[in-house]
Amino acid sequence: MGRTALVLGATGLVGGELVNRLERKENYSQITLIGRRPFSIGSKKVRNVVVNMHSLKDVAEEFKVDDIFCCLGTTIKKAGSKEAFRQVDFQLPVAAAQLGSFEGAKNFLVISSMGANTNSAFFYNRVKGEMEEEVKKMTFDAIHIFRPSLLLGSRKEFRLGEKLAEWAVKPFSKILPDSLKKSFPIPAETVANAMAIAAQMEAQGINIYESGQIRETGKSIFK
């Protein structure tokens, strides 16, 4: 049997791009998608598991895989409150890491955010930092934490801030050096590619990818 993967947040911006890459990868024999609604799939080796996301323990056996990709994330505005945001961006990733660790998963890869810090004055960044610290406590061969800047891509909902950022930086994207682009908005497909590539590495311990490193890793061809 080949490599196995579990993706949480497949219906999201990065998650969807990630699934498309993994299903084309020959060494993955099975890819399980866990979410509150099904993701449209085009491969027989991809399967949906629809579940109440706040009861992940009900499908604990699904976490017995090689690689767990956690692409969950929202905004305070979309979630409706700080507490609801915390449930998605802290509680769910930590619960997934706990289950994966208990079930013997080898690698845990999770999307955080640029500026994640437990001491941040910003609630969003503070929650992301707290999530990272809890995930780091879990036992895996390798933990990969990705801290992208503002994500770009085709979302179902319109986010004015993201569109304004995209329009603002586009004229400069080809003339500025890479060193100045590290905090620029980053395409979701680049983040997905970086995650897929990182899972293939023989890495150990805790690995943190800042936005500039995600951009560089994501440029590579996912073989």
TrEMBL record:
It comes from Neobacillus notoginsengisoli. GO terms for molecular function: NAD binding; oxidoreductase activity, acting on the aldehyde or oxo group of donors, NAD or NADP as acceptor. SUPFAM superfamilies: NAD(P)-binding Rossmann-fold domains. Signal peptide: none annotated. Residues 9-131 form the NAD(P)-binding domain. It comes from the Bacteria. InterPro entries: NAD(P)-bd_dom, NAD(P)-bd_dom_sf. This is Oxidoreductase. CDD domains: CC3_like_SDR_a.
